[in-house]
Amino acid sequence: MALSNDAGRADGRRLPARDRIIVALDVQSVTEAQKLLDQLAGRVGYYKVGMELYNALGPSVVEMVAGRGGKVFLDLKFHDIPNTVARAAEVVTGLGVSIFNIHASGGKEMMSAAAQAAAKRAVELGVSRPMLIAVTVLTSMDERTLREEVGVGRPIEDTVVAWSRLAREAGLDGVVASPREIRAIKLACGPEFLTVTPGVRPAWAAANDQKRVMTPGEAVAMGGDYLVIGRPITAAPDPVEAVERIVAEMEEANQDESSL
Ligand code: C5P
User: Fold this and answer.
1) Nearest CA owner, ligand 1 atom 5
2) 22, 26, 211: which to mutate for ligand 1, most atoms within 8 A of CB?
């Protein structure tokens, strides 16, 4: 089994632009997934495998992506008691995923148990440990839902920042963040603490159901490390051309940022 979990840790902003792109593999069939993987081979850093594809195909989807040279961000958002999450972290480390995520709302002990278990299993297997990323407040939640249904009374941004800090203290590598949250998170947790950002839309792409979007250039200029991009690439008439346009935009924004 391929164990390509070279996570390319540290400040993602030092990586080449294409290595910072995570393509959301939100497709329904193996055939569609394979077609995209073949088209995009060597052009992007990672592929995000979510609950839908993973629950449909099982762990073989990770092997399928790795077998075509792709690195996997396994987006299963673990949330359970520390022991259970730690065991799951061991398993996905053994599968060879490069990034996986857990809910920060599971608490520091849960996050820390997962981080330690993944690191330990990676050492046992002689591979790099996967990057472990926390999910803070789901962007589908508004302040009212958070307060009245979930019982978290703080404003959303304060909660995002507090849970990001907690994730850093627990030894996680970063958080999933809306582009608008990047600055506050970097300020609170330091530049090395990674942000993985969905809701990215090039100016030339349809917003689809995303409400508060930023272009790849804006997300890079905000200090974002990794960008999760789905339909602007996967639904484009020419996915390769779409990736190359996005890479060019990110590189331009990076130059602007470094020349400041
Ligand atoms: O196609 P699109 O670029 O909108 O895909 C974005 C991906 O990121 C999807 O897999 C979506 O589920 C995920 N995501 C998101 N917003 C979040 C968290 C995850 O769009 N807040």
Assistant:
1) 230
2) 26
HSE-up (13 A, CA, CB side) for residue 172 = 34
Whether 224 and 195 have beta carbons less than 8 Å apart is answered as: yes
How many angstroms is it from 215 CA to the middle of ligand 1?
A: 14
Residue 23, strand partner residues: 47, 229
Q: Which residues pair with 24 in a beta bridge?
A: 48
Span 131-179, pLDDT tens digits: 999 999 998 888 999 999 999 999 999 999 999 999 999 999 999 999 8
What is the position in ligand 1's atom list of the atom closest to the CA of 209? 4
Q: Which residues 6+ apart lie within 8 Å of 65 measured at CB?
A: 25, 33, 37, 47, 49, 71, 72
Cβ atoms of 203 and 162 closer than 8 Å: no
Contact call for residues 205 and 231 (beta carbons, < 8 A): yes
| Given 35, 77, 108, 120, the catalytic residue | 77
